[in-house]
Each structure stands twice: as structure tokens, then as C-alpha cells.
Design goal:
binds thymidine-5'-diphosphate; alpha+beta; 5-stranded antiparallel β-sheet
Length: 232
């Protein structure tokens, strides 16, 4: 295969020959945490994250959210619109966990109602610091359309995960612009970039299992995929 135009920590992005406005995104059997300082290669993981992402992107598209998703190729590859990625990670929080617990006096499990939206710089070399909306604007990026889209997406996710018996704690989104300057949802939508707790508990079905060495992510992610595939 040709060399990737972009090599992420767990995904690679390739041009699509003859289709200048499309890319393929290949999901690898790899998981990382702590900005790449912990790495493992769990078999089947790429395929499971790709398939979960595909189901969730399709659900969002059906609900009128504009995304980069066009389809899948095989089990581990998504065909997507080519975008210029906004260098800001957008995080939505419904329950306190992770960095908000480490950097504030909120305790894990505190309900956050209404949900909040946060912005982090997408730059591993700077360790992805928290940004203020003013700083995002100073970078020449209007945070408002991303905030509006993120809150709409959260509403759709709440409905989806409630049907699966899962509490959606938080999740990370990335956005990008197409050649017409339209803002589209990008990246992946999988338990690698979400916190998913079994309803009413703090039992994780997400990457915290790897971060905290608390269980098999492939088994947990597969349960999420099964639940998605068995939705009525
Ligand atoms: P956050 O609590 O800010 O960071 P961490 O999990 O590293 O303590 O993360 C909030 C959500 O966003 C969580 O579900 C993980 C996800 N996320 C990513 O997918 N990538 C990232 O680079 C970051 C910082 C978070």
C-alpha cells in the first residue's frame, strides 16, 4: 500500500487514487494512553473501533449531523471526505471523570447538567492543554459552531447510549472543513474517545480499562458493538 498522508497513533490516513476529495482511514490493532507512553496491540481492536464508528456516524448522518463519513471498506477502513482538521479537540462532559477531576475539586461521578463543552489544543508536543473559548478565537477559530454541533451530537448520543443501558460520561470530537469551508464532524467515534459506564455504575466499557489496567478492552468494546448491532 502507498504511504499514509497522515500517521496517527492508532489510525493511518491514505489518499484515495483518482478521488482528490476522499481519504481512507485505516484503524490499527493498537491502543495508546498517556500521550503514547503506554502502548499495546490487541488483536481485532482496529476492526471493532472502525465498525462502532461506522454505526454511530450513520446514526448521526440520519439525524442531520454533517460528518466526514462516506462508508466502510472491509472491516477496518472508513472511506471519508477529505478535510482540513481544526487543531482543537472538543470534549463534552455529562459526568465528571478524567482530567476534570484531576484539575478541579469536582469528584468523580458528579452529574454535570447541563453538559459542558471544553476545548483542548490538538498538539501532542504541548501535551494537549486546556484552552479557553477566547484562546480558540485568538487562534482564528470560531468555537461556537463546534460547541453547537457538539451539544446536538450529545443529545443524539444520550438517546443512543440510554438504549444500550450505558451512561455516557464524556467524549472527544474533532472537526474539519471541506473544500467548501463547511464544518464537518471528523475522526472516529468509538470507546477509545468516550467514557462509557454501565448504567447506574462506574463500570467502564472504554479505554479507561487500558489506562487503569482494569480489563480487556477488546471484550468490552465488542459488547458495545454487539449492543449497537442489536438495536431495534
Ligand atoms: P479527559 O478527561 O479530558 O482526559 P483524560 O481521559 O486523558 O484524563 O478526556 C475526556 C474524554 O475525551 C475521554 O473520554 C477521553 C477523550 N479524549 C480523547 O479521546 N483524546 C484525547 O486526547 C483527550 C485529552 C481526551
Amino acid at each position: 500500500m502507498e504511504s499514509p498522508i497522515l500517521q496517527g497513533k492508532v489510525k493511518s490516513v491514505y489518499d484515495v487514487p483518482g478521488e482528490a476529495d476522499k481519504v481512507s482511514i485505516v484503524f490499527h490493532d493498537k491502543v495508546t494512553a498517556w500521550n503514547g507512553r503506554a502502548v499495546e496491540y490487541p488483536p481485532e481492536k482496529g476492526k471493532i473501533c472502525c465498525l462502532i464508528s461506522a454505526v454511530i456516524f450513520q446514526m448521526l448522518e440520519k439525524n442531520g449531523i454533517k460528518t466526514h463519513f462516506l462508508g466502510t471498506k472491509g472491516f477496518d477502513t472508513m472511506l471519508c471526505r477529505k478535510l482540513t482538521i481544526v487543531p482543537v479537540e472538543v470534549i463534552v462532559r455529562n459526568i465528571a471523570a478524567g482530567s476534570i477531576v484531576k484539575t478541579t475539586h469536582l469528584t468523580e461521578g458528579t452529574l454535570i447538567q447541563p453538559a459542558i463543552v471544553e476545548y483542548f489544543l490538538k498538539d501532542d508536543a504541548k501535551d494537549d492543554p486546556l484552552l479557553t473559548p477566547d484562546r480558540v478565537a485568538l487562534m482564528g477559530i470560531n468555537p461556537e459552531p463546534m460547541r453547537d454541533a457538539a451539544l446536538k451530537i450529545n443529545n443524539h448520543f444520550q438517546i443512543l447510549f440510554a438504549q444500550l443501558g450505558i451512561d455516557l460520561v464524556d467524549f472527544k470530537l474533532e472537526f474539519g472543513h471541506d473544500s467548501g469551508q463547511n464544518l464537518l464532524l471528523a475522526d472516529e467515534l468509538s470507546p477509545d474517545s468516550m467514557r462509557l459506564w454501565k448504567e447506574g455504575t462506574s463500570e467502564s466499557y472504554d479505554k479507561d480499562l487500558f489506562r487503569k489496567d482494569k480489563g480487556d478492552i477488546v471484550e468490552a468494546y465488542n459488547q458495545i458493538l454487539d449492543k449497537l448491532n442489536n438495536l431495534p
